[in-house]
Backbone:
């Protein structure tokens, strides 16, 4: 026959979990009904020991709401209800009805207190009811007493059966809960029970023994029962103390994040989990705050501690609850990522993005930046130790190359080992005479006279000989040695300038600053002290900064440059044209000098595009009232071309190579006596 309409869909069958929960709930409800309607309540209320029973009920309520918190190593292994001993005592002494009702009320109060869902609360009451009924059944079977019998005294001969009944109650409870977890997660019931036995067996046995004693002494009154409060309180204090000590041993006391030890344990577990699933990972993200030492030195360690707590909060908020952030010490943070390279890089981006907004502490607003290294197993390491080493190398590379995120690559290892040795040697060189300063003249192209010099640090290594500045200055910048290195250059340069000024030569001294210096709020004070030490007027000093340095932390750079300008020190933008947003900061900052980068100057005589760029830059700078220095002048045609573009100061090998302080003084003396610059050959 034809169907007269659309066929009604069949209802989907209930899931095994729903069937299980419904079955347990129904059995629990039936058990409650039996003890309520079939129990000898009249006998119970006439024979019950009111004082001890009320004490046990109240103790059960408190024990359920305030469970014992257990640990597995440094990780919480769950909670264990402390109501079990008092419910067990009620099972034997007050009857099954009182015990079931007391346990049900205690469970309901705990669920309300912790705001659990109604369906979970109903299941909890049901499974607790079945556990109590099971304990009563075992006890009655072993002591030959009626299941629905009323209150009765507990004798010494009853303690063994009561101990077995208590073990049955705990076993039924754990089994019923394991069934739910197994159906919800797909785990084995036996494996769950083994874990519970390993974590809870000893504590449960202690609680059952306390319950047996409570049942035995209940007939002696409340005062005797109250003595059992001591071991229960001791159990609470011991577990609380263990929890506290485990937390302190595995967490950073300043931020509350996991520490290095906990990171290694989390990483080991992640490796074990990855091996079971044969999946890629785990990955590790290591972060380090940029210029944190400067903040500590300038604003003090208490301020730095507050900043670290704010940063920790930002990192935690940026990631899911199950992704843990660790603080390894100082300003280093780490995150274990259970995934591949893409997941790790995404986590690194999210963490760095979390610092985009300024952090306000007291009356200061700070823009904090960080660098991140990424390493992923199995490609970058097959165990926790190897992965930690590789991610540290990746972070070092990110700092060195000024990349915000750097993923480990094998070639970083070779460079890192060599550079680490060079870095150690540089620390020694700062305390010896291996470092020195040469000076390259800056010549006014209109009259060929030296009007300034640039201080250039040099290093003669006792083994490797001359070390290129491009090899050791980035090391100093990434390691924190740039501050003492610049202090050495500044002190040496101002000392030489003072000697030249005594000889009657009024020229400018240019000293380079790194991006780190522009974040150092203490720099203006240090410059003022150095000028005062050598009796040099501020206008004779020019501090060269790069576009990258200005833009890496614009807020602090503006503040530092402004303070330097108030001292009267000149500010020059070095390598102009190689960075970004040049016109933006030229409008915002008060600077004195623009240095056109050698990449445009050196070929301007033969490359029309370079000539246009240089000509436009010089015209712009002169229109803004800035002094112009053209770097990289290597021949006379370039010098002549620049001379035609306006009042330009030149710097380059054609005009003078970097040379010693004494040779610089001789050059200045020769210019003064001859009235013209010496020939290039004589330099």
Residues:
């Amino acid at each position: 026959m034809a169907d007269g309409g659309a066929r009604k869909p069949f209802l989907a069958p209930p899931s095994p979990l729903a069937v299980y929960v419904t079955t347990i709930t129904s059995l629990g409800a039936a058990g409650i009904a039996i003890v309520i309607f079939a129990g000898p309540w009249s006998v119970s209320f006439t024979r019950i020991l009111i004082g001890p029973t009320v004490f046990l009920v109240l103790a059960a309520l408190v024990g359920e709401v305030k469970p014992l918190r257990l640990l597995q190593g440094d990780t919480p292994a769950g909670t264990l209800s402390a109501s079990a001993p008092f419910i067990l005592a009620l099972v034997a002494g007050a009857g099954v009805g009182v015990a079931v009702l007391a346990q049900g009320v205690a469970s309901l109060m705990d669920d309300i207190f912790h705001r659990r869902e109604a369906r979970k609360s109903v299941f909890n009451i049901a499974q607790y009811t079945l556990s109590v009924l099971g304990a009563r059944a075992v006890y009655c079977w072993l002591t030959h007493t009626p299941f629905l019998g009323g209150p009765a005294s507990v004798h010494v001969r009853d303690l063994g059966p009561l101990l077995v009944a208590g073990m049955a109650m705990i076993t039924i409870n754990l089994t019923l809960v394991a069934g739910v977890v197994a159906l919800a997660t797909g785990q084995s019931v036996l494996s769950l029970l083994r874990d519970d036995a390993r974590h809870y067996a000893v504590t449960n046995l202690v609680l059952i023994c306390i319950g047996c004693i409570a049942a035995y002494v209940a007939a002696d009154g409340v005062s005797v029962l109250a003595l059992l409060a001591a071991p229960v309180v001791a159990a609470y204090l011991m577990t609380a103390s263990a929890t506290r000590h485990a937390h302190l041993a595995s967490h950073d006391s300043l931020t509350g994040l996991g520490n290095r030890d906990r990171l290694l344990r989390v990483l080991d577990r992640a490796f074990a989990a990855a091996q079971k699933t044969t999946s890629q990972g785990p990955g590790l993200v290591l972060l380090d705050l940029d210029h944190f030492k400067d903040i500590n030195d300038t604003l003090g360690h208490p301020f730095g501690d507050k900043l670290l707590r704010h940063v920790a909060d930002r990192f935690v908020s940026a990631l899911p609850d199950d992704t843990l952030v660790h603080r390894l010490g100082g300003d280093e943070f780490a995150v274990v990522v259970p995934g591949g390279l893409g997941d790790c890089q995404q986590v690194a981006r999210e963490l760095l993005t979390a610092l985009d907004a300024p952090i306000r502490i007291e009356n200061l607003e700070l823009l904090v930046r960080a660098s991140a290294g990424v390493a992923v197993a199995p490609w970058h390491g097959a165990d926790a130790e190897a992965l930690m080493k590789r991610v540290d190398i990746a972070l070092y590379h990110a700092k060195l190359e000024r990349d915000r995120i750097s993923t480990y690559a094998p070639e970083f290892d070779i460079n890192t080992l060599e550079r680490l040795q060079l870095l150690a040697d540089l620390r020694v060189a700062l305390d010896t005479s291996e470092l020195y300063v040469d000076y390259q003249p800056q010549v006014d192209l209109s009259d060929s006279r030296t009007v300034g010099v640039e201080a250039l640090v040099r290093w003669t290594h006792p083994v490797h000989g001359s070390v290129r500045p491009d090899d050791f200055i980035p090391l100093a910048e990434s390691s924190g040695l740039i501050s003492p290195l610049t202090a050495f250059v500044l002190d040496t340069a101002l000392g030489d300038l003072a000697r030249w000024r005594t000889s009657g030569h009024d020229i400018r001294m240019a000293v380079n600053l790194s991006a780190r210096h522009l974040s150092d709020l203490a720099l203006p004070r240090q410059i003022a002290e150095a000028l005062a030490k050598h009796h040099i007027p501020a206008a004779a000093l020019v501090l060269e900064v790069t576009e990258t340095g200005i833009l890496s932390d614009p807020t602090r750079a503006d503040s530092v440059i402004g303070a330097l300008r108030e001292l009267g020190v000149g500010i020059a933008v070095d390598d102009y044209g190689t960075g970004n947003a040049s016109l933006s900061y030229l409008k915002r900052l008060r600077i004195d000098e623009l240095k056109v980068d050698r990449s445009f100057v050196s070929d301007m005589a033969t490359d029309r595009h370079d000539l246009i760029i240089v000509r436009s830059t010089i015209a712009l700078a002169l229109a803004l009232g800035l002094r112009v220095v053209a770097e990289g002048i290597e021949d006379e045609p370039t010098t002549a071309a620049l001379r035609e573009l306006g009042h330009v100061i030149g710097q380059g090998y054609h005009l003078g190579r970097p040379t010693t302080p004494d040779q610089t003084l001789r050059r200045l003396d020769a210019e003064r006596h001859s009235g013209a610059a010496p020939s290039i050959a004589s330099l």
Notes: The chain has a mean pLDDT of 81.
